[in-house]
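step=encode ok
step=design start
structure_in=
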């Protein structure tokens, strides 16, 4: 889990997102530009993920396992979206659409910070700080974009580190 999901996928995507924001927008969140049907569909999927995550943390359906699966699903969705949108990101004629895709990715990072708070509070707090947001204290009701102009410091933050043999020696044996 640590190596494949948290480091291999989540950290890689967050670092890559931060590098693209730094390169294209001088480290600040862009405003959305032109919307495509794919952008709207992706936003709809994020809304569905938020609803499922919310349901997994309610008293009548509480499941940390399901919450973790939904958080992983959000990241898997955004990685697929990023790959598809990356095909035109450096095309001048698609600059407005690329800006919207990046704004949507930052909305996912914001959603991840809020949604991870009950499951991974330190990660959520650190992610929020890198997005120029306060530590999450309220649940998002909708997928919200990052405020344009917000400082984004994702590329210089290490969220997860691989364990070493020394770390493993300190873990209790079962």
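sequence_out=
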């Amino acid at each position: 889990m640590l190596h494949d999901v948290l480091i291999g996928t989540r950290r890689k995507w967050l670092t890559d997102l931060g590098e693209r924001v730094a390169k294209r927008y001088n480290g600040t969140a862009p405003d959305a530009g032109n919307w495509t049907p794919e952008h709207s569909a992706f936003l709809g999927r994020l809304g569905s993920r938020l609803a499922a995550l919310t349901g997994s943390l309610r008293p009548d359906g509480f499941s940390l396992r399901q919450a973790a699966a939904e958080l992983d699903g959000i990241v898997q969705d955004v990685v697929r979206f990023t790959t598809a949108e990356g095909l035109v990101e450096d095309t001048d004629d698609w600059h407005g659409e690329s800006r919207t895709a990046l704004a949507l990715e930052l909305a996912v990072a914001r959603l991840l910070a809020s949604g991870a708070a009950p499951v991974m509070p330190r990660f959520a707090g650190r992610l929020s700080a890198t997005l120029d947001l306060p530590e999450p204290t309220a649940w998002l009701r909708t997928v919200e974009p990052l405020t344009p102009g917000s400082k984004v410091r994702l590329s210089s933050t290490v969220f997860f580190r691989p364990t070493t043999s020394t770390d493993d020696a300190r873990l209790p044996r079962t």
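step=design ok
step=annotate ok -> DSSP finds six helices and no strands in the chain.
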